[in-house]
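#data-curation
PF: Archiving a pair of folding outputs for the training set. Convention for this channel: one message per protein, sequence first, structure tokens after, nothing in between. First:
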Amino acid sequence: MTEPLTIVLAAPRGFCAGVDRAIQIVEQALEKWGSPVYVRHEIVHNRHVVDSLRAKGAVFVEELDECPVDRPVVFSAHGVPKSVPADAARRNMIYVDATCPLVSKVHLEAERYHKQGRHVVLIGHEGHPEVIGTMGQLPEGAMSLVEDEAQAAVFEPPVPGMPLAFATQTTLSVDDTARIVEILKRRFPDVAAPNKEDICYATTNRQDAVKAIAPQVDAFVVIGSSNSSNSKRLVEVAKAAGCADARLISGPADIDANWLRGVSRLGISAGASAPEVLVEQVVSACRALRPVNVEEVAVAREDIRFKLPRELAS
């Protein structure tokens, strides 16, 4: 008889309030204005979500100049540089900003620091849309990007002695970021810090749940897209917490019978942009191979909801 597989589900997992809001914005924009509604960049980093919205009439583009001026455009949850809404306004376009409110909080912090005469150090990953959007809130040269401990150890202000402040991308590894911040604070004792941590509650909760499960399972899968920062961080957290065999999968098609053969306990989580239906499908794919018992480990309860933009208020 095939040995049963125990699946340990991490909670919280999957959609966060910012992702849920962003998807609602596109759906309600389609309801209000009809299709097509244009979306600059993927609304969130998940192929399943993007394909679902595309089927409803959303058209995804990379740049604003790909959008006709007579159709509405939605800006993604990751945020955009200030130049993007300014360009949309100049072209008299209808636009709705789906930037997560917790990303907007980082934007406002950066502006406040800049007005105080501080140079802003942004901890984040080069090329990520959130980082591009945050750096685009300030004039060029007013913010420097630091990606890791090595860069933090050699960073120097563009003007010697210039007062500093730091901000962070919202989807980073909590532990990695803490080490980078420690280096900056040691080197620049007067560096200004956010009043409240920039890494969002959803990222922190999902990482804490993975940490609680990783030491007690043989393998771990995180459901999410390869371009999802928070999903990739969950894989790293699982490995660091004691589960060497952790991997990122996009959905049930990635469940490998050969890989599962030596696994008796499997941890499962999902990135903040991955819908719960994918979790259900992955569990079903495991059931097709072996008898399955399901447990859940919950470390927090999330009940945060964000209001929709006034453009869509009924």
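PF: Second:
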Amino acid sequence: MPIKTYFATGIYVDNLRAQGMKRFNDEILEQCYLVRDTDDEGQEWSADHYLHGYTSYGSITDLHQRFPHFEELAQEIDRHVKRFARKQEWDLQGGRLEMTTCWINIMPTHAAHSLHLHPLSVVSGTYYVAVPKGASSIKFEDPRLSRLMAAPPKIEGAKNQPFVTLDPRPGQVALWESWLRHEVPPNRSPGDRISISFNYDWR
């Protein structure tokens, strides 16, 4: 074909690790609820900014530096970020990508996370702890969308759509470049959708 695709946007999804996943994830799940139940400041912040749900984004964003289970999680995610960086063909010029923030999101029924990006970071991502049947997907926006002023709509089933949704599973980690806008629609499941989000900076 004479057409070649340029300016591709990579989204990385893989299982966190192959061995001991259930035990590790069960322990992380317990820790998420423990942090929520003892984080009074985070609960107050969430009541104002995270309707129906809880996030430690407004109170504790250094989980990987405070708690052993989250430190172990960060070490596992580091391997995936290095792989993602190689696929992106980045020249880090002797520097490295380092996790700088890490926080919990607990989304009960009806909780949602509006469209946003993560400014000033390089890689952002999420580790999925609990994804009940019927829970929300994560939805990514085509970064060119604001420039498609007169473009016709895509045909049904087209691969290249203005929005892409991914259905995560517990134990998976997803990575993307921090400038890529994304959202989580309202949770339609009766159970909690629980994830741990993070950012990496280039240092």
